[in-house]
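SAMPLE LOG
Freezer: B-3
Tube label: C17
Construct: single chain, 517 aa
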Amino acid sequence: MCHRWSAALTIAGLFNLLLFCSCGEVDSVFPSAQTYQIAALSGKLSLEEYALIKAEDEIQPAFVSPVSNDKDIASLKVFFQTPGGAQAGRAVIYTAEGIGPIPEVSEEEPTEEPQDDIFFRLGGFDKRLPPFTAPAELEPGPYALVFQVLSWNQETLSKTEKTVYYMGGTDYEIEDIAAYLPGISAANLVPPESYVLFEAKILTLGDIDPYIAWYNGRARISSGRLSEGANRILWKAPAQTGFQQIRAEVLPFPPHGNRNPSLHVAKAGTRLKGKMKELSLPVSSKGYIQQVLIDTPKAAEKLNAYFTFAGSLKDTLNTVSQKEFIPFPQKDTSKRKINWLAADDIYGLAIGPNDIYYIPAALQKRGSGEWGWGSFTFRFMPLNEGIIFRASFSTSEDTEENEDSAILEVALETEGLTVTLHSGDQAERIIAPHPQNNRISTITINYLTKNDTITVSLGKDEINIPVKKNLNLLGYQLGAAKNDTDPAGALPTAVMDEFAARYSAEPAPPKTTQKNQ
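STRUCTURE (predicted):
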């Protein structure tokens, strides 16, 4: 109770002081410097904390309250300040009449002093101040825009700052965000605990690498630079049904709290507001993903391996065996980011020179006897030229090519889809029509090893080469580099939606078909 009474008495005494003091006396109690509030426009918008400023944006400051009767103000200095506290580029100085050796100029025509600062001589500060643009030499990045009110003695009467990000000639825009499932879903419903690929379409202008933060409601689920592929994320839907709000926020640099604090000048409790897009995702137990290559239980019984790439590299069919594709090379598995890409209206696994996945021999069932046959079925979308599949046949687990081994390759080339079989210096090839780009296609490759011959067929086309010994399937992989000259930044060859493998020692190889779906 004592504290409350003490505060009340203090407020009452202050009120009486204000009531009986003249204006001049009030100024002596409350210095006028505390009343100088500066606002500004950037382009046609109010300049807020963490605003984005472009090279062509005009900045126009103004005093919030009238100061025409304030005789203390001599000038208003506006300048950009680096995170280290140094002035960046020249300042803009608005001066009142009689401030000293400032050349006579009109309100709309600035004058440059030897220090390259820009001066505007004004009749007063209450009307709209002339606009200016950022210094031409200013580099894109975070700054504090400083508004400094100076006296006739060049003493600082007030100083306010706004944290801004100067874009320069760069710019970015988030056009849209889209959600993809690993197959066709009934009524576009998302099954609980399924994996969804989100992709933000971002346009950039100039040398800028935006930072993307993804949110599910208020919880951040992923973030990173555009150059790191952060515009695409794989997200697991919750077990609980209902609508999920997914938001992508794009910023020119990492926000406060990022491990690169030198990139910004964040203040406690504030942060840059980026450009955002949002979508609402329906998670329902009525949703399910249609599988194309296996549409009946009987079809599943005939396969040895089946991969749907529904956010995983594991065999969908043989969950007990835990068979799965492994990113190549194996030593980089823990560091590799699996590249999921949209394909038509679904998503799948990107494969190519830099996206190679293989099934090792230790996980492969190998046939025995005089016969050995099998098939590989791919459901994929072509993107660029390159190898999409490679299988190895050998008499042993030696993966090196020799006279007792054979290699089967399926590739997208200028002349079409090619199936090449080679062993030693022997090679045969099938050339089929090129699958339509940006459309999902399905093909099946059959092989037969019998005595001293290996035969491969695609549809009605068939090739074979002689070998010295009966060969067994050693292993296979998705994606490959053509040679050592493939660039590190080579684009993916295709997006794989489903992959099925079948192999047996029975002498009854299946027929093949090729179709587009």
